[in-house]
Every structure is written in C-alpha cells, then in structure tokens.
Amino acid sequence: MTLLTTNPDYRKYATFAEFGKDESQMRSSEELEVFGTSVLMAIDKMVASFDDVDAGVAHLQSVGKLHAKLDGFTPNMFANMKDAFMYAASVAFEDRYNDQVEQCFQTLFDFCIKYMQEGLQS
Ligand code: HEM
Fold first, then answer.
1. Domain containing 39 — which CATH number?
2. Closest protein CA for atom 4 of ligand 1
3. Range of the domain at 106
4. Which of 93, 101, 121, 116 has its CA nearest to residue 38?
C-alpha cells in the first residue's frame, strides 16, 4: 500500500489504485486481492519447485515477460517491491522473524526479482 500511495508510477497499472481512491478503498478492493494473490502465487510456485529449479526459473522468467506489454514498465519496478515483500514476511513470521529468516527471504526475493527482470528484458 505504501508503494502505491508513494509511487504514482505504479498506480497507473492497477485498476484498484486508480486516482481518487483512498487507502481504505484500495484495501477493500477485490482487484487488489486478486492481484496480490497472483503475485504471491508466483513466488509460492518458485518455492514449491525447489526440486526442479530450472522449471521454477522458467516460470519466473515467463511471469516477468508478461509485464513487458505494460507501457513504461521498467526492471527496477520489480526490485522496488522488495521492501514491501520483506515487510509482509516480517509480519507473517511475527516473533519467529530473526536475522536468519530475514536472510532467507532476502535471498528468495533477490532470486525471484533477478529472473523476472531477465524474462522482462528477453
Ligand atoms: C515481484 C513482483 C511481481 C510479481 C511476482 C507479479 C506477478 C504477476 C502475475 C503472476 C501476473 C499474471 C496474473 C494473471 O494473469 O493471473 C501479473 C500481471 C500483472 N502485473 Fe504483476 N507482478 C509483480 C510486479 C508488478 C508490478 C510492480 C506491477 C505494476 C507496477 C505489476 C502489474 C501487473 C499488471 C498490470 C498485470 C496484468 C497484466 C495483464 O494481463 O494485462 N506487476 N503479475
């Protein structure tokens, strides 16, 4: 949500975040829920394919490439989401969140971002 409220560049792509909507309207948006679920499912699929890393990488690249049709979309738009993912992970892990868990999520998100950027630019 912070990403959307502080970065108008991101809002133009999202129907749930069209200008005029305030934060509470965005939070109750069904489109936001659907989009958030797609994003998390893409990451979940990577984690689930740890026994077939090539397939996981190919999926990340294809999800990255999907974004190439969005006008003005740049590779760093994926990277800019990292802080939001890290924050979500810290909330989900509550008191189990520690330096080691944080390091694991850093590695996971860097990995996902790297291959999505690769797909976007392919
Ligand atoms: C790591 C970050 C991201 C992941 C994992 C991700 C994942 C996905 C996935 C899986 C879809 C396909 C949804 C479906 O067809 O069911 C999608 C579509 C889309 N994403 Fe992302 N996304 C990310 C970042 C972004 C960002 C930063 C934006 C915009 C600022 C964005 C805008 C969109 C839009 C507009 C679509 C719909 C494209 C269409 O089919 O017309 N995404 N994303």
1. 1.10.490.10
2. 39
3. 2-121
4. 116
* Structure confidence at residue 113 as a pLDDT band (50, 70, 90): very high
Residue nearest to atom 16 of ligand 1 (CA): 38
Q: What is the pTM of this model?
A: 0.84
Pocket flag, ligand 1, residue 63 (CB < 6 Å): yes
Residue 78, ligand 1, Cβ within 6 A: yes
The tally of domains found in the chain comes to 1
Quote the CA–CA distance of 117 and 94 in Å, as a whole number. 30
Neighbours of 40 (CB within 10 A): 12
Whether 77 lines ligand 1, by a CB cut-off of 6 Å, is yes
Contact (Cβ atoms closer than 8 angstroms) between residue 26 and residue 20: no
